[in-house]
Design goal:
Elements: H1 4-9, H2 21-24, H3 27-31, H4 60-63, H5 67-81, E1 85-90, H6 95-98, E2 103-105, H7 107-115, E3 122-126, H8 129-138, E4 144-146, H9 162-176, E5 189-193, H10 198-206, E6 210-212, H11 217-227, E7 231-234, H12 237-246, E8 254-257, H13 268-273, E9 276-279, H14 291-300, E10 305-308, H15 314-319, E11 322-323, H16 326-335, E12 341-345, H17 348-357, E13 362-365, H18 381-392, H19 404-419
Parallel strand pairs: 1-2, 1-3, 3-4, 5-6, 5-7, 7-9, 8-9, 10-11, 10-12, 12-13
Helix pairs in contact: 5-18, 7-8, 10-19
The chain binds iron/sulfur cluster.
């Protein structure tokens, strides 16, 4: 099977391009650069307390090991640890790591898995920072959540810091006040996508707000509109816009919030008329999909079914046949009669895996340029071998701990989400 890694490194017999020079570099070259530091529960833009761990250089024995040696060591450590260690792998993770995962899923499915495996003393999260935080919040206090490479963040989650969100809220409160209308709806409800720091989830929980995923965003926005006159949505503008539009909210009733400008770059009148205020974040992988790619797929493959993720821009979602979460995309392909042709607008590792697993269909990525989630890509099998062997030795490295003062409000917002039926 041709893996995404083969495509990126050019070892496959193809002439594909990838989206970044860093991807083709040796992982240790990229990792030798100063790694970002995350405070407990914060995004990369929030100041981290002094002494917070930062990903150091991976010991040479792992960096220099062959794929075969890493495979042997990972399997041996996993066998020794047994059910004391649970390895979670996100759909967008590379196959070289996914093959060791006990559970594979989206961020919400994996957080749920973390919450329902009390026997696991260590949960090794092969995803990105906010996912490991959510697993820490939902798992037991005696369970350690480990992120194999501390530099694996999410560029979208990092686009909203808690300080910026608090400033935004202060401006909105000054404009709207806090009084409910005749129907008992407060002026504004904060909603945050799962792809955000624990501090922002906590912020939402403490202010009557809620978390959503791409699977339940519509149900969560319905919940929010029952309680508020309008919604402020962090940090992904596209998921917020696509979901609200599908619910019938006109685009001219949505304002975009730029945290660097007063009132987010809006007039008071626009904000008073807005039903949805969208933070100006985005996913660098999903915003690459275009209407032109969809037109090219339709021209080349008559009868193609185009399915994109709702993190894509609104014009792409409008031009596609369907849009939905990674779980939706997978289920749509599984349910299709043999011989389907699918152009999929989501991260390449998942698309490539679906193409391999369901050979009865023709499945390809809408973007002809190979573009994996470059932050998740930082988790190389060498890091997985390192954290597992450290556990065998009795050492817990790269533990992600969300501060208590942050986790309680975040848990409230997550529990509200769990109570909402999609
Ligand atoms: S695919 Fe996009 S939203 Fe998902 S983890 Fe990567 S950067 Fe973040």
């Amino acid at each position: 099977m041709t893996s995404v890694n083969d495509l990126i490194r050019g070892s496959a017999a193809t002439s594909v391009r990838n989206c970044g020079a860093d991807l083709a570099s040796d992982p240790w070259t990229v990792d030798a650069r100063p790694a970002p530091t995350y405070g407990p529960g914060a995004s990369v833009a929030d100041p981290a307390p002094l002494g917070m761990p930062r990903q150091g250089r991976l010991p040479e024995e792992y960096a220099a090991a062959s794929p075969e040696e890493l495979d042997r060591r990972i399997r041996a450590a996993k066998a020794t640890l047994g059910n004391r260690a649970l390895i979670l792998g996100h759909f967008y993770q590379r196959d070289e790591v996914i093959r060791y995962a006990d559970v594979v899923g989206d961020s919400f499915q994996l957080a749920r898995a973390a919450a329902t495996r009390p026997a696991a003393e260590a949960i090794i999260f092969c995803g990105v920072h906010f996912m490991a935080e959510t697993a820490d919040i939902l798992s037991g206090t005696d369970q350690a959540v480990i992120l194999p490479n501390l530099a694996a963040g999410c560029s979208m989650a990092d686009m909203a810091s808690i300080a910026e969100v608090e400033d935004c809220w202060a401006e909105l409160e000054a404009l709207y006040g806090t009084a409910a209308d005749a129907a008992g709806r407060v002026p504004v409800i904060p909603v945050t996508y799962m792809n955000s720091s624990a501090a922002i989830k906590d912020f939402c929980g403490r202010r009557g707000g809620i978390v959503c995923t791409s699977s339940n965003a519509r149900a969560v926005l319905t919940w929010a509109f029952e309680r508020g006159q309008r919604v402020v949505f962090f940090p992904d503008q596209h998921l917020g816009r696509n979901t609200a539009k599908a619910m019938g909210v006109p685009l001219d009733s949505m304002s975009m919030w730029n945290p660097r400008l007063p009132l987010g770059g809006n007039s008071e009148t626009a904000l008073i008329q807005a039903r949805v205020i969208l933070w100006n974040g985005f996913c660098s992988v999903h915003r690459r999909f275009t209407v032109e790619q969809i037109a090219a797929a339709r021209a080349e493959h008559p009868g193609v079914r185009v399915i994109v993720h709702p993190e894509c821009p609104v014009e792409v979602v409008d031009a596609a046949d369907e849009n939905g979460s990674t779980d939706y995309i997978t289920r749509a392909i599984v349910a299709a009669p043999d011989g389907g042709i699918f152009a999929v607008g989501t991260e390449i590792n998942l698309v490539q895996r679906l193409a391999t697993r369901y050979p009865q269909h023709t499945i390809f990525c809408l973007d002809p340029v190979v573009c994996p989630c470059s932050t998740m890509y930082r988790i190389h099998p060498g890091y997985l071998a390192w954290v597992l062997e450290q556990l065998v030795e009795g050492e817990t490295v790269n533990r992600i701990r969300v501060a208590d003062e942050v986790s309680s409000g975040a848990l409230l917002a997550l529990r509200r989400m769990l109570a909402v039926q999609p």
